[in-house]
Amino acid sequence: MVVYLDGWMGLNFLVDWMLLLGVNRLAGYPPGPGRTAAAAAVGGGYAGMCLVPEFGFLAGTLWRGISLGVMSMTAFGLSRSAIQRGLLFVLLSMALGGLTICVNSSCVPGLIGCAGALGLLCRTGFRGNTLHRKILPVEIRHNGRKVHFYALCDTGNTLRDPITGEIVLVAAPEIARQLLDLKDSEIQKPADTVRSYPEMKFRLVNYGTVGNTGLMLAVRCQHVTIEEKSQGTLVAFSPVEFGNGEYQGLTGGYHG
Q: Which CA distances in Å does 120 have to 81, 83, 115, 123?
């Protein structure tokens, strides 16, 4: 049987790319086609090198593990969620390899065992939480500036504009710094900031969390899109950081 190097690399690229896209979908993250394509290219290149006689040693378990780690970091980054998504990617890759072996050997019990083990490990590893989250890409444009970030879809977020009744997008302090050049002290003292910058037309929005209530600084931006769909334009800025770097915003019932 003749195996062509370019065809082998292309096949591995496509398989890895679809697996990586599937991992993001399972974990509730945007697809990230650019980063996943780069990671899949690493996988395709690794698969091609394994066919070259001089680099046959790369087919060993150690180097395979290293390649999966590099692919995971390329596709998902280095955040806490990247470890979970990387683990899921490794599990999917191992399951696919096991299923291929079982199909070739006509081992029905092996097929059932691989599928069951994969489902159990995914459910245990994510504890039913991460897989049900949805993190959406957000773009805000205001006064000639543009910021991109991710927002967690929080069905418990019922924060609304007391005047119009529209759901308010909550953004982390770093978004206010990028978009409006505000200092942390100005974000944390919203009433003073409203008086200090009347030309900015800031608003105050009441919020309440478990054991805490207060006011957030808000502004009506010129353009807001969530998951590439235009949404309400009122954005409030949290006085404290949240999300552990995984997301910088909280949405409510915007999307559908």
A: 19, 18, 9, 5
Integer Cα distance of 256 and 1 in angstroms: 50
Question: Going residue by residue through the chain (256 aa), what tens digit of pLDDT does each one get?
Answer: 455 777 878 888 888 888 888 777 776 676 677 888 999 899 888 888 888 888 878 878 788 888 888 988 888 877 666 777 788 788 777 777 766 666 666 666 765 666 666 666 555 555 444 445 678 889 999 999 999 998 888 766 677 777 777 778 999 999 999 999 999 999 999 999 999 999 999 988 888 765 677 889 999 999 999 888 887 789 999 988 887 677 889 887 554 4
Q: Which residues contact 147 (CB under 8 A, 6 or more apart)?
A: 139, 140, 175, 178, 179
Whole-model pTM? 0.55
For residue 77, what are the contacts with CB-CB under 8 A and spacing of at least 6? Answer: 35
Structural contact between residues 168 and 218, judged by C-beta atoms closer than 8 angstroms = yes
